Amino acid sequence: MNKETLDLLAHELGEIYHWEEECPGVYYLSILTTIEEGGEYYAVLEGAPITQEARAIGRRLKDVPVLLYPLEAEDGAWTVVEYEILRYQTARGLPMPEGKSLREAALYGAELRPDYFGAYPVPFLTPWGHTLRHRPLDNGIYWIETEQCVEVLAVCYPIWDGDLSEGLWEVGRKLDAEGEMGYRYFLKETACVAIWELLRLRPALLTTGLIRKTELMNAIWEHQPGYALGYNAQEQAGLNDALGLLLYALGVEDRELESSPEHMITLTEEAGTEFIGFWR
Fold first, then answer.
1. Where are the domains of the chain?
2. Is 106 exposed, middle or buried (0-12, 13-18, 19+ CB in 10 A)?
3. Tens digit of pLDDT for each residue in 207-263?
């Protein structure tokens, strides 16, 4: 990247204190003073070996012949660029960056950009036999009925790795053939807890009408009462306030940890425990 382009980018974004070429015409930038999306970017120049599909989702800056992909942007466009960088390196037999793989890049990208990578596939086989019927709760989260007449929740990597507590995903069954980056499978007795934890980052799951929250909480009390007691104790102590805990870790001590009765796992005697709203 020549000095003129760097100067133009610095004028638009802030001081560039680190940059490196990832593949021809594609650069990683770290910015000292930034606009709202954050301080890290992929920058793609004209002529870089990047597909038109990837170019179409980049941000164009006025008077700067560069496409930008903020690494903190919620649209996940940067995952497409990262994948194409790794694909370029793989196709030419070049060494991969430490800790990176083409497969893992595709798995992470599919959550944010299914329009590019495709949606996560429905598992064909589970620990309880082949999948016969399924309903998607979200991309990569499926409710499945197997050939053994077992109902099971399937959660794909990286969703279970990022959204579920470690103790929970270790309880989930897996297929050896899928390796560590495959699906985790939960029977209904633990699926109720898995769905509860997924709701923290995916509250829209409740708007689909497929999950009944009251029955879900009842199922947790019936099958996992120790979890309900521990969760409620943490809520009362404010230990489920992720933002408050983060601010405290950053040294902001004048904000009290928040808790709310609305966030407790409650028991409603007149309701049942069938928390999935289909096949009934």
1. 3-117, 125-263
2. middle
3. 888 899 999 999 999 999 999 998 888 877 765 655 444 444 555 566 565 666 678
d(CA 44, CA 1): 10
Considering the entire predicted model, what is its pTM? 0.82
